[in-house]
Amino acid sequence: xxxxxxxxxxxxxxxxxxLLVFWPGGGLVARGLxxxxxxxxxxxxxxxxxxxxxxxxxxxxxxxxxxGALEVRRGLAVRLVxxxxxxxxxxxxxxxxxxxxxxxxxxxxxxRTHRLWERYLADRTGIAPxxxxxxxxxxxxxxxxxxxxxxxxxxxxxxxxxxxxPIPTVTGELxxxxxxxxxxxxxxxxxxxxxxEDEPAELFDRLLAEGLRPGxxxxxxxxxxxxxxxxxEGHEHALAPLAAASITVEPLAAGVELDExxxxxxxxxxxxxxxxxxxxxxxCQGPERRRLLDLGVxxxxxxxxxxxxxxxxxxxxxxxxxxxxxxRTQSRLIQVEPVPLEAAS
Amino acid sequence: MTTTLPPVPAAGPGCAGCAVPSRRENxxxxxxxxxxxxxxxxxxxxxxxxxxxVFNALTGLRQHTGNWPGKTVARAEGVFALGEQxxxxxDLPGTYSLQAGSADEEVARDFVLxxxxxxxxxxxxxxxxxxxxxLALQILEITDxxxxxxxxxxxxxxxxxGVDAARLSxxxxxxxxxxxxxxGVGIPExxxxxxxxxxxxxxxxxxxxxxxxxxxxxxxxxxxxxIEAAYPSLPNxxxxxxxxxxxxxxxxxxxxxxxxxxLTDADHALVGAAGASAAVPTDTRAVQLxxxxxxxRWQLPPGFHDAITADNFAAAETxxxxxxxxxxxxxxxxxDRKLDQLLTSRWFGFxxxxxxxxxxxxxxxxxxxxxSAMIGHLLIDQVNPWLKGVATSLGAPWWxxxxxxxxxxxxxxxxxxVMLPPMAIFFPLFTLLEDFGYLPRVAFNxxxxxxxxxxxxxxxxxxxxxxxxxxxxxxxxRVIDSPRERLVAIxxxxxxxxxxxxxxxxxxxxxxLGALAPPALAGLASAGAVVGIAVLGIVVMFLxxxxxxxxxxxxxxxxFSLELPPYRPPRVLQTLYTSLVDRTLIVLWRAVVFAAxxxxxxxxxxxxxxxxxxxxxxxxxxxxxxxxxxxxxxVILLAYVVAIPANEIVxxxxxxxxxxxxxxxxxxxxxGVMFDLKSTEQVALLLRGAGWxxxxxxxxxxxxxxxxxxxxxxxxxxxxxxxxxxxxxxxxLPLGLGFIVCFLTAQLWRLFA
Lengths: 345, 753
Prior knowledge:
The complex is a heterodimer. By secondary structure, chain A is α+β, with helices and mostly antiparallel strands. Chain A has helices spanning 4-22, 28-36, 40-57, 63-70, 74-86, 101-124, 129-142, 145-154, 201-209, 241-245, 286-294, 328-331; strands spanning 90-93, 96-99, 180-181, 190-196, 217-223, 228-232, 235-239, 247-251, 274-280, 302-308, 315-319, 322-326, 334-339. In chain A, strand 5 and strand 6 (228-232) form a beta hairpin. The longest helix of chain A is centred in the N-terminal third of the chain and has 24 residues, at 101-124. Chain A is globular. By secondary structure, chain B is of the alpha/beta class. Chain B has a 6-stranded mixed beta sheet with strand order 2-3-1-4-5-7, sandwiched between helices. In chain B, strand 2 (76-82) and strand 3 form a beta hairpin. In chain B, helix 10 runs antiparallel to helix 12 (283-297), helix 16 (398-436) runs antiparallel to helix 23 and helix 18 (459-468) runs antiparallel to helix 19. At the A-B interface, helix 1, helix 11, strand 10 and strand 12 of A face helix 4, helix 13, helix 14, helix 17 and strand 9 of B.
């Protein structure tokens, strides 16, 4: 018989060791996977992407900007550029680096895969928005072209990624980007959010927390060097100018109605009262939104709250003739205007 | 745009489908059995509209109908005669919409479009016309060969709702038949309408939404003419255009393959003969069409899908407002609401739930004892010796009769006698609660608890089901329609102590744990220990659900919705019949299929010898060191290996192996034969004699809760998830937990006791 104390000790050691090895994110296995991702091809593809984004935003790309973007030493960046030039994917013009046509097509394909994968994560999985970009950074190098095309077909050829960036087509076409930063809008202008910048992550998280998503409609109240204030879904929001600059918007044509009254949400409707749906919040996307729509939660639907469960959540609602239980996390996303109960016949 | 063809006489038997090869191929792909029929009829409808009842009324086949949404995941088929014609009826999954957002919706949509049924019967719940019309309108966009059944008009009348069927029929442009499928009212009229639409005597002019938002109409205006030019006989070009703009992959594929050209509203036979060559465009035109679609897609407004859905519901609302007459004020669901308020009230909700579930379990446990003993006595004590007697008198060698009757037969008999009675009581009771509509309320009340573990409230139901049988519990997870929550429910179902494990728990608790308490309290202590193990199972279920949704299942998509159907009086006799056929016998049959070979294996290891020692003894010897480390022993580990097929035979196998290895004479029915002892004292004497301690007993109870699911359940998990990965996880997770828990218990016990 093994001595129980010694057995427990050995067990404890084994447990600690396996945690060290398999711990998600920080364990040896996870680190190994990360290192594996740092190979030559991945660096080259990242370099192409950097040159592409630089060209798109009109900034000069140099060896130094490349080293900075890829977080590598300057020597390595030089070697990368040599390799790219040798394969005729990029060339140097004076001290600037520009993409060749072949390089542009290659870069666009990486961008396409990246944005497709983000769309996939947003629509078909439960992965949190903060992780989309990081995961797509990895997947853009791993997915083959065929797999990316199959994914695009399965997703119904999405046009935009969940941040609002257009997804380049297979042939490398990209619709011209209009729009301007929210902070440059004249006060009182109504606009639709086209794009939210997903880097740096902290800023992106902040925008997500405000409930902003592409397609959201806002009206600028004030833009000063200190603060940018705007109305969105009936609430006033305030952001630092830097944060507001990372929101790209397109001004709406005059006459487009914008609902700026503060609406309660379905979660505010207590049993025995009713509300008419004004909209599902822009923050509700993917399968959750589709499910609500299919259940009949569309603008104009009158919903009456019937009774709460023993624990207070979920609550049962009468929606177009059926009794449907919704959790508070869902009913908070449905904006309504209270109506008398008789309307909910 | 419909081509008005003269009514075509029905084709000869078996030929309606064979004229167009692609349709037949489609049907094979869609999983329809290829027996002979004249007309193919699909049955569609929202969940919980009594669709399955209509199916039964038409076919006479007793398909199980449950009062909770999402029942018919596996599709049912039936054949019935309509005059001279044989009609094949296919029951489609109940869905809220046909936007192909879920697997169910895709199945239903593909069938209506590519299966080209001669008639699609859409079942509407008369108490919820507006909601149900949403689906009906979507089907009318695809096909005009539709008959609408307005089911449950009796229930509607009770609730003060009247529906003007004639008016609804005029608005929808298809026959609308009021019916009470449960009692057969309206079924003859339905048959007449099916015949009329199938023969073409009734020509439908289905309602279709003509106006969407201006941007959508502009895009459609550019795309529809292209589609009409390429496929002149297509009955639903607007719908096809909308689907293409939505990026529907299946429709794109149909355009690429030319399949779309074979879909028309004309009689299928005619198209096959004449229309095919003209209707199928060349490849270049198909590619052009798809390219144009890709360009047009950029012009659509961002909330395109939302807008289309809203338009559909708006149309449903208008039509319902015209044809549905309500009683005074709100629809009268007063009784339902009062009952709901009682069953979900803060003070009575949980006590009532506990009371109802306790009664169900008590009836199951106490009611099953007598029949279990009777069946056991008959099959094991009477039939087995008789069979062996017959074999001996026929001169069969000992090994043949031993293999067949002490191995294969005995294991099977054991499983039947332990499993059948509780399941035959538990499942009908559970089904009655389900039919009445109570179970969704249980899910509703418990959802908050489950949500905190990342699971769905309906997991409470599949967990309860697991107390009857884990395999049945895993099948029951089909009612959970969110992918992640369903996987959680499947993987953790094994932590519900199934009824094959209860006898082990009770026996071991009364021998080893009852003995630790003073004699007066022994019974209470052992009962407490068993309940404690079951509660531990529930705790482990919550903990592992929590852990799973934060690690391996983090990336699975999650949604929540729970429909609370109206209360309906359960039909007791039909429930007894169907739950016996549907659940009990199917689960039992699977168990028997797995138990018989296990019986053979057990007999073989007990009777085949190497060097004068049986295989079982060799194996027990090898497993003993590990068993002892875990606070168990080699006999228990070997019993769990060979008894993977069924937990019921663990104790008989343990007893057989103990007698074999401890070389006790005069107990049981002979070497290498499974047996059970009539009195607990005898078992206690035997096990203590073989070196069992209170620790062995406790750890056996823990291991009985925390080990791999039985092979029936493993197989079911594989069938339900279709994934080796999840099956392996569901098997390894409880086993790993069992090893760790038993090991730690053993070491701590030895350290402190």
